[in-house]
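step: validate -> pass
step: tokenize input -> pass
step: predict -> running
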Amino acid sequence: MKRIGIILCLLLLAYEVSAERVKVRLFSNNTVDLINISFDLGKYNLYGNDSTLIEPEVGDGKSVELTPNGRMVHVSIDGYDYGSHAKVSFVATDTACILCLNPRNIKQRTYEGDLVVTVGKNGKLFIINEVEFETYIAGVAQSEIYGNHTDIFRVQSIISRTWAMKNIHKHKNEGYNFCDQVHCQAYLNRCVRPDIMLGTMQSAGMTIVDSEGKLIDTPFHSNSGGQTANSEDVWRSALPYLRSVPDTFSYHMRQSEWVKVITEDKWLNYFSSKHNLNIQADSIRQELLQFAQSTRKVRICGVPLTRVRTDFQLKSTFFSVLYDSAAHKVTLSGHGFGHGVGLSQEGTIRMVGLGISYDSIIHHYYTGSRIHFDEDLPHTYVENYIKQIAQIIEEDKQKSTQTVSKKDDWLGRLFRLRDREEREEVYDPNQDELDSDWQYDW
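step: predict -> pass
step: emit ->
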């Protein structure tokens, strides 16, 4: 399997940015004072500082505990003390390796690639996942959108890849490329579903560019409520490809509608105290209590709706006001979820379900844009990858009722399949697995 990892790296070197290993800060919104790391697939060499080998080939059945010790990281493996180190690195011995991360009081996650742990300025653990670019994109697609059709994840992968390539140095001064939260893009787990990885690989080499061939900004949101917003209505810049468009595809989805009830006094006093409006004036009072949006507006009584949304923690700025004079309450009847600029994810899900092509979806939400395809992509490798993932998905359909184990993970199966193909063997998924299938030495 080591030889296959080398071949993979050589093939991907031609793929410019996508061949890079990116650094993603994990648990960036959390305070981690203890983490337990186990191994779902493959083996890792553990290094202290830059090159001191702590323990070779740590794998399944082993448990590594890391805690901060001043400015150092203390290491314990299966209860044995391995001292404290300025930096601890988990370096995969092969391409198909998976780490299981269990921080104290935080939900467990799994990741591929390498892991580097130091102590941050706050005295807590600072955790970086060093991972192949496309593996990161697949993890983002899984974290950012839901669905069961590969084209959903193809679309999400294209816009997430475009954003990542445009913002590759966003956290450069902090020593990594991206964080794992929506400040960058959500990256809350490795890609555990082969259909998501299939959608990512089907979009390999694709990014979105403007009329001059430059990468565009690709904001997205959960649901537009029926109409997307102009970029300048939410942020400062008016971008030609982020124009408001009708979006009936976002109707009848999870986040299509919302309601929030507020007392009349709280609603009116907000505009009086925060924005110095004379709420006794009939015209102002009438607009505040009878405000309606059949199409998106930018302000209410001159107050930016983005400010109202933030202060009242509303799902969107696309709402109308219904006034109940008897109960002295106002009901905000809203549409959609998110800032409304760019692509609606639930609109995308519905469009895919209606059979609309992935490129038509992108052109619908990003006005006048076009999809750029990287001609340096190693086509043969990608085509084989897609074929092999599709084979695994088909096998899963045939044995959907069977109990699966860690060895049934799609990544492990992919590389077992490649091992046997390299040895000119035919892979039979029903054949009993042998130890040699996991320990083949090239």
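step: describe -> The first strand starts at residue 21 and ends at 26.
step: cleanup -> pass
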